[in-house]
């Protein structure tokens, strides 16, 4: 209290002292101008009396304008000083009120309590919530990942692909899978690391090839059931890592990989449990604000907010990943799609396109980790779609068969069933039908979609009811 009174007195003295100095300075300048003016008048005039008078009038006008500016500046300063004094006085009065003991009725106390609650509610409403922050990030990611199909080469590639699928149709896609993909294993495939680490493999029959496997730099072992998928037809800016759903004993390996490979996005295409069976370990906290410390490491993962994409079954969570002794503060967007049935296909193809749109980027140093349970069926389907889309966007001819074989050379068993293979076609046809509204293109895409829907109905494949969804924040 005494300190505040002292500061108020000091501020007041400084203001008075400054006012005196400015007044003396103003008087000195006025006197100096008067002397110069008298000297000027005494000098023999080289001009006529009329010109001399005009010159003096201009100088007087300039003086008047300068004085007005100085007066305005002084008034502004006085206003600021008054504002400062008012703030200090208000603070003192508030302190006095705080330390003054008064008797209040129970009703007054209740009203004051309600007022405080309302003020806290108002402040909370104004403060940006985590969900709003994540929504803004999602919106920005969707905008950044949008693709351009305006070039004639791209349009031609899309139309040629649509024409080819009109003769193949969905049953033809199933036949193509059975003949050329189902048993396909690339030549020179080895599995030494897989065989040496049986406790780190979720399924005995889902192999991890040595080619393109992720080699961990830290820890007791360099093995994790994961493979790099990068290179043509993917652009340099895209780097996928396909992996299995972490086991309790491999959660530490999973997060070491994310740190090592500078992961910026994780796509999870399953639930932790499906039909009573564990499909993936809970490797992050679903509760906002919680921090999970990863056992056996110095890594911690904090949940910083969520966004639920309305009607899509997708949840985006913002994760902050830190490691003791490492200054790199890592932010990861975790996208979980919960309604894709294991070994099946969803009827809603929009989610695939939107997920891929959110993870496209220009940063060549980061990666996108994508997994389901085994990391080959649902995972391989999404990656195959993106590889095919990139060929179309480059204006190049597309054969889905060749692309899936190319993918399997990096991650074995990718696209696990014939229905998933047909679904790759369905997503691509859906993309073309949206982006190329030409009547001829629309006709052939509708033919494939009709045959695909009939196929799904005949196979009695468990699907989710399809409806247009709002994916991402409202635009």
From TrEMBL:
Any Pfam family hit: Y_phosphatase
SUPFAM superfamilies according to UniProt: (Phosphotyrosine protein) phosphatases II
PANTHER family cross-referenced by the UniProt entry: TYROSINE-PROTEIN PHOSPHATASE-RELATED
Biased segments, Basic residues type: 85-99
Residue span(s) of domain Tyrosine-protein phosphatase: 197-431
Source superkingdom: Eukaryota
Residue numbers spanned by region Disordered: 1-119
Gene3D superfamilies: Protein tyrosine phosphatase superfamily (3.90.190.10)
InterPro entries on file: Oocyte-zygote_transition_reg, Prot-tyrosine_phosphatase-like, PTP_cat, Tyr_Pase_AS, Tyr_Pase_cat, Tyr_Pase_dom
GO molecular function annotation: protein tyrosine phosphatase activity
Name the UniProt record assigns to this protein: Tyrosine-protein phosphatase domain-containing protein
Domain Tyrosine specific protein phosphatases, residue spans: 350-422
Compositional bias (Basic and acidic residues): 11-30, 64-84
